Amino acid sequence: MPNARLLLATLLITASAHAEKMSWLANDRLKLGVDLDLGGAITFLASTQDGANVINNFDLGRQVQLSFFSGPVPFEAHGQKPSEHWRHIGWNPIQTGDDFKNASRILAHENDGKRIHLSCVPLQWPLNNVAGECTFDSWLELDGAVVKARARLTNKRSDTTQYAARLQELPAVYANAAFPRVVSYTGARPFTSDTVSIIPKSETKHPWTFWTGTESWAALLDEKGHGLGLITPGRVHFTGGFAGRPGPNDTHGNSTGYLAGQGLEILDHNIVYEFHYELMVGTVQEIRAHAASHRPQGPPAWNFTQDRQGWHYQNAHDTGWPVQDHLHMLLDQDDPQFISPLAFWQASNAPVLVIDAAFKTTQKQGVVMLQPHGAKSFDSKTVVSFPLVADGGFHRHVIPLSALPAYQGAMVRLRIDPVAKAEPGAWMKVRSVRFEAASK
After folding, report:
1. Fold category of 22-292 in CATH
2. pTM flag (> 0.85)
3. Which of 34, 83, 255, 382 has the lowest tally of Cβ within 10 angstroms?
4. Non-local CB neighbours of 277 within 8 Å, separated by 6+ positions
């Protein structure tokens, strides 16, 4: 009997310790669990109908978690160099830990039964127990069948270089082998009940592919059309796929489906960067219907009073973070480019482009380029020049686009080339870029 009591006590202590590792939210539709030993990453999500966890936890690179990328590439720290397999990945702190099975450290955790807040110090994925010189914060709450999430990166890097924009995982989502079908809507008629798309397998050795999901959602589904959906309000750029073989709903299985919202973002050494996302366990019809509740009203408009709004540069840089009132883009390299995030609009609803900007340059012409839906890049047929008011003051540069014969149908991206050639001391300050129905 003493041995039995000792065994029982040991089991109770072990169970209690395990319970303390997890923080839970639940309602009549969902149960959500985050692991406090893994940076607060989401390790459990299940419908209350069956209680089956859909999140994959094969290693510390799975889960639903935050993951960010910047330079340099490769990234080295404290005398450590990444293995050849990870040299391409660069600076990459992730929420759970690293490839050496070290776990990220929780700084703060609150759970009032309605919302969880977590803060952690992430680790550099390719290196052994190297902190990311940053913190991650997550706020999670349940709303019916939906997990609503807000995420924040706060950088405190000692390397103050402004590295080029990198694709970010917003967030990284891994589901079990029972959900091998990758589905989204990629067409030119979003929110019209048009047919959804099965995302084809990658044709390269890398298992993931990229697409423009014009209804801002993607899902990993089983053969019955049920599974895990990722909704990214305001974002249409996705990556994902399935690696391995379809199989059981095993949270520790190696085979996995993957989704991530995508954004090309510059992550300054001192940036505070936030994004929102939502998760949903349900049918593709339910996931799609919920995504429609975030349907954008009107064509895109970007205001740069506090941040870059997802825009990035080629052959250029700006004066850094924080952003106050406008972006200050330096034009001291040839062919500087200011490029929007992927978006979606109909040309007929956006015949006029207005750039609220100030220019200091001796050059007289800027150029606007547009990328049609379905095109791999900017189309030479949708290029228009506009005169610069380059007296250093802010002006509305109004550019009629409807005169371009090829500016028709669906569009997904915009590029502004302020000048053609490098000019030391030249700059563009831009407050906003927006489409309008007619010139004002």
Report:
1. Beta-galactosidase; Chain A, domain 5 (2.70.98)
2. yes
3. 83
4. 149, 151, 170, 171, 230, 231, 232, 233, 261
